[in-house]
Amino acid sequence: MKIRQRILINFSILSLSVVGFAFLLIFAVFSNYRREEYQQRIKDHTISTITNLSEAKQINHNVLQSMNKLNINKLFKERTLLFNTRKELIYSSINDTRVEFSKEILKSLGPDVPLLESHEGDTDIVGVYFVFNKEIYFGITKAYDAFGFSKLAFLKNTLFILFGIIAAIILITSFLLSNRITEPIVSMAKALENITIHEENQFLPIPKGQDEIYLLTIRFNELMKRLQDSFSFQKHAVHHISHELKTPIAILVSNLERLESEKDPLKLLIGIREQKIDTHLLGEMVNALLEIAKVETHAKLSFQAIRMDDLVFDGISEMKKIHPKFKFDVRFDSKLDSYNGLSIQGNFRLLKMVIQNLLMNCINYSSNNRSEISFKNQGRKLILQISNQGKNISHSEVPYLFQHFFRGENSQGKRGFGLGLVLVHKIMQLHSGEIAYESTKDHENKFTLSFMN
């Protein structure tokens, strides 16, 4: 069953049940009120008859019945029986309506039970124990509330008609409401038919309302973005392995075959060293591909408090071992908190890769063997900037800087495969951080890392 149908059925059943219960309660309350009000009228009529009989003992029975006929308060289908102290019948109305169980009612009446109310079918019966002029009387009256039942029937018909009208309104409203509620879901389902993981930047349209559908759409688009990125990586990885890895491996094998027949020891030594460098770069490329794959597929990472200044100084120490002539100038903003301002929550291994890649870039692309590193706070963010002098990346290439296997014109003649910045970008995303590149006219290249404290 569709969600739209379930909403329609459940809402309609619930609403109609509430309305039906309310109408039944109204009818029951009115019916009970009618009975109590009419039995009070019977009681008053019985007491009035007893009073008249006691005050007019000299009037004969026929005259009293005639007065009873002319009484404006006479009840419909009324039958009244009056008894004296010895419970002997002293008066009976002219109506031939029978009073069932009159002996049982008469027997129950007394000082402790001055009033009994009962009913037989649609007729109401009232028994009264009454003391007037120091004499005890018993009265039993039975009557039919024609006017009350007519009003009760009118109320019942009115409630049935109202229930039908309200039921129609509820069904129409439920239908419109279910359509309106499920419209975003239906639209989402239709949009999903056109979304494929093979094409990038295909997402669900975000609804205007800030409701659960809005949150579901946002989460789905985030998931879709991760899936598309993962698929893009796999696609680029296969393409790169087939086009990039195949070539250096073929060259490596060819050079080794050439060195195999080399007789000159000096040329053989130089060739071996070159092959060692090429093999090392090939290993780095494979490792970078593996690291990006790990980052792409990581579901959970262990985070801890990390001092970014310690991480940078450790990275500088390692770089200095390989490139002792290169200089790193580290600067701290005067307003920077020495502890809280430099600490972030992150994964040590991944952040270490970020620093190592950016420092190695400075070494590879610097024109003066120098790099500047600065720390500062910007609101609740820790800003780390790493810059060096060198050939700038063109503005047309900047949008592709953090894409898979991209290398700019400034990397021509440099060893590498364009994977370092891709890895850095992925790690920054995992840490809810950002990386940005900017260049100046005086050939300065600056990478800016933003972390939440």
List the helices and strands and how they pair.
Layout lengths: L2 H53 L5 H10 L8 E5 L5 E4 L9 H7 L6 E6 L2 E10 L2 E10 L1 H48 L18 H49 L4 H33 L6 E4 H15 L4 E6 L10 E4 L1 H18 L4 E9 L2 E9 L30 H11 L3 E6 L4 E9 L1
Parallel strand pairs: 7-9
Antiparallel strand pairs: 1-2, 1-5, 3-4, 4-5, 6-8, 9-10, 10-12, 11-12
Helix pairs in contact: 1-4, 5-6, 6-9, 7-8, 8-9
What brief labels describe this structure?
453 residues; alpha+beta; Beta-Lactamase; Heat Shock Protein 90; 3 domains; five-stranded antiparallel beta sheet; 9 helices
- DSSP helix count? 9
What's the domain count?
A: 3
Lateral strand order in the biggest sheet: 2-1-5-4-3
* Shape category: rod-shaped
List segments where confidence is low: pLDDT < 50 over at least 5 consecutive residues.
69-73, 406-417
Residue fraction in strands = 15-25%
Separation of the first and last Cα atoms: 49 Å
Topology order in helix (H) and strand (E) letters: HHEEHEEEHHHEHEEHEEHEE
Round the Cα radius of gyration to an integer and report it.
49 Å
Q: Give the helix proportion (percent range).
A: 40-55%
How does the major sheet shape up? Answer: 5 strands, antiparallel
CATH topology-level fold name of the largest domain? Beta-Lactamase
Mean pLDDT: 78
- Secondary-structure-based class equals alpha+beta
Could you tell me the number of beta strands?
12
Q: Which CATH-level-2 architecture of the largest domain?
A: 2-Layer Sandwich
CATH class of the largest domain: Alpha Beta
